Amino acid sequence: MQIIRNLRRDIANTGITVVSLTIGIGVFTLITLFLVREFSTDRFHSDNKRIFALKCEDPWIPGSMIYYCKAGSAEYMKENFTQVEDFCRIINSNAQKIVAADEDRTDHPGTISASENFFSFFSYKLLTGSPDQVLKEPNSIVLSSELAEKYFGKVDPSGKIIKLVYSDRTVEKVVTGIFVKPVENTQILFDIVCRAGNSDGRCYIKLSPGSTGNEVEKLLVSYKDAIPVINTGKPGPYFLEPLSSAYFDTKRVLVIEASRDKGDLLIALTIGLIVLGVALFNYMAVLSNKLKRKSKEILLRRIHGSSLKNIVLRITTESGFVILFSFLLSLLIITDALPFFNNLTGSNLPAGYLLTPVSVVILLSVLALILAFTLLFVNIQVRTELKRLNRNGKDPLSRPVTIPVFNIFQLACSAGLILCSAVILKQIRYIDNKSIGLDKSIIEVKIPGQLREKAAVFRNELLKYNSIESVSVTNASPLLEHFLLALKYNQDGIEKQYIPSGFSGDENYLEVLGLEVIKGSGFSDDLTFNPGKCVVNESFAKLFPETDLIGKGMPGNEKTTIIGIVRDFNFSNLRTAIEPAFISYDSKGFHLLVKPRKDNEKETVNIISKIWDDLIPGYQLNSESVKERFEWYHRDNKNFIRLIGISALISIILSLIGLFAVSFHKIRSRTKEIGIRKINGAYSFEILALIIRDFLIWTVIACLISIPPSWFAMNKWLSNYAYRTSFSWWLIAGTLLIVIIISLGTVLWQSRRAATRNPVEALRYE
Q1: Of the N and C termini of the chain, which has fewer Cβ atoms inside 10 Å?
Q2: pLDDT confidence band for 401 (50 / 70 / 90)
Q3: Residue 390 has pLDDT above 70, yes or no
Q4: Does pLDDT of 231 surpass 60?
Q5: Residue 357, class by beta-carbon neighbours within 10 Å (0-12 exposed, 13-18 middle, 19+ buried)?
Q6: Which residues have a Cβ under 8 Å from the Cβ of 328 and sit 6 or more positions away?
Q7: CB count in 10 Å sphere of residue 241
Q8: Alpha-carbon distance 385 to 403, whole Å?
Q9: Contact present, 279 and 652 (Cβ < 8 Å)
Q10: For residue range 457-472, what is the model confidence (pLDDT) as tens digits?
């Protein structure tokens, strides 16, 4: 076949095109599928446009929202509002241990308790059981098909007993149904569904046909004094959040619900467009050079009667074979790259999603757009070449060949991604190395609530080891959990309010965590002294700059006396500035904070594991270091730098491929010129400098173009952090140097070969 022979004859350019398009199409298609799936979250529910998530205003913290609803609130709406057709309540019910088929399971599958109508309210598909019946009985439990097979094999588990072991009880459930996890994305995360009782939890309501969210929200405002909210049953206003947008409310973060920041999706889209753009520019560069070389052939075909349409279709068909091959190859890459991509983006895009109608439409659309673009580009280029030949009758190969603007764009994209990667990496290193005012080596051991009496025994056993410096009893580490306390006080006859964060611990709490007392005293060993006492942080003290807080009651809570002030410490991620906080004395916790001696962290972990197995057998060890928790708070940053870094690498590879193709064409077009210069006495290094000069200029221009948007984007990103690094000048200089080295390295060996070539051979070159 003539087309195949033509492609094989020009194997270098064909290879460049295939590699570029395969990578570009693969990355762009994968990101597009991911974005479409994210933005279509929960759209598969038949009544998705009528379903809304409930949220209510926190009665203690004005302007703050609570995403749990008080038991009875949704019931009130259904009974009193004709606009509300139904509701469904969902509660996190994750157990510490599951017993299935007489085996202890500690894999912690996502377990929720839901209203009886869960499977009729939503459109999750059941393999066995009826949507109206599977949660009819209080002891009902429904499993995912994957979990059912894992626990019971190929046997139908219907009627089988499953035990859920919690901190204070063990509950027996009977399997009544099996459901299939949807290929489409859903924000509700679960592997097991149990029947929920009448308790507080997440609530979704379904509006009656023809009713609107605005209509119901007006009713909720009117009835705000009648519907209780979560805290103490104090009434307050409720609000509706459409199911389609609830997924993008990042404040709804909970174990049973997923959320996604739209900013992350915008970044993914930008990266996809950049990679595809770089790939397409490579393709255009190769195709443009090919048409320049074939300009005489095109002119001869035109002279011999071939229509412009036939010439364009002939060239487009040849390119179409390359595009189709690249497209099919990209599908293989997408399939193999899915696990890595899911890990990188924190998504769960299944392989089966590629076969859904929406995915097929997207894939075919990408292919059709590239083919249409090729047809348009070839048509324009052929017309341009014919006009140029008809105008001057000269061989375009005798004219100087310049790199088009898109090659500069390629380098600019690569430079921008390198610069962004450097800034993000610098911020991550800043986060990792920043002192947070806490000893990051501290390990928290979480004793099950029903075994809280074991805490004191566990503590005494730990202190027997020399590798452990000290142990504190608490309810939670500062990075894991704290409570908010809304306090009101009078100042000069004016009532004021503030909301400090609260912590509690025993007499060793401050010392174990490494908190520095800068004024007053900490907790003493005299337990009769400590009840009703607390210490506050610097940010708390700054709220009352003209008051000596030591020895006085906490404003708004005078029963608690302030005995000291500790230096500020971070108890959240570094996106948030340190807020006012207090630490009260409490020796009744059942969590342990273990402080290992220096360089004894690993040994301490082993000791904790040994004691746990001896004292609390049958339960999975639940422990975590302050360092691990701190890294968890910033886990998205790690994925972010990986995403940007990989994208930068791909963009660089594609840019280098494009530079290689363009430099090859440029040097080949100047072969005779180089031979003439050498005959006239030009040195090899002079010719070498002449060839690479343009590439150096284009590289510098590309880097300069990339600086403003990268600077803007990174400053915008850094502004999300209360504690952040700076955008240093040496990052820009380093990026410029890296791109120059990479670019020149690509073209240098070709340039050197041309500069040292025998001039006689050069003059014979056609």
Answers
A1: C
A2: very low
A3: no
A4: no
A5: exposed
A6: none
A7: 19
A8: 16
A9: no
A10: 898 889 989 999 999 8
Tell me whether strands 111-114 and 192-195 are parallel, antiparallel or unpaired.
parallel
pLDDT attached to residue 526: 60
Check whether 476 has a pLDDT greater than 60.
yes
* pLDDT tops 60 at residue 75: yes
- Amino acid identity of 707? I
Mean pLDDT of the chain: 81
- How far CA 320 is from CA of 26, 317, 359, in Å, comes to 17, 5, 22
Pairing relation of β-strands 553-554 and 483-484? Answer: unpaired
DSSP 725: -
Query: How crowded is the C-beta side of 135, counted as CA atoms within 13 Å?
Result: 24
Q: How far apart are CA 153 and CA 758, in angstroms?
A: 74
Is the Cβ–Cβ distance between 71 and 232 less than 8 Å? no
Give me the percent of the chain exceeding a pLDDT of 70.
83
Domains of the chain: which residue ranges? 1-41+273-399, 51-252, 409-429+634-766, 443-633
Q: Helix/strand/coil (H, E, C) string of 314-354?
A: HHHHHHHHHHHHHHHHHHHHHHHHHHHHHHHHCCCCCHHHH
Report the share of the chain in percent with pLDDT over 90.
17
| Cα radius of gyration (the chain) | 34
Cβ neighbours of residue 515 under 8 Å, at least 6 residues apart?
437, 438, 509, 522, 566, 567, 569, 583
Query: What torsion, rounded to 10 degrees, do the Cα atoms 525, 530, 531, 532 define?
Result: -170
Contact 335, 351 (CB under 8 A): yes
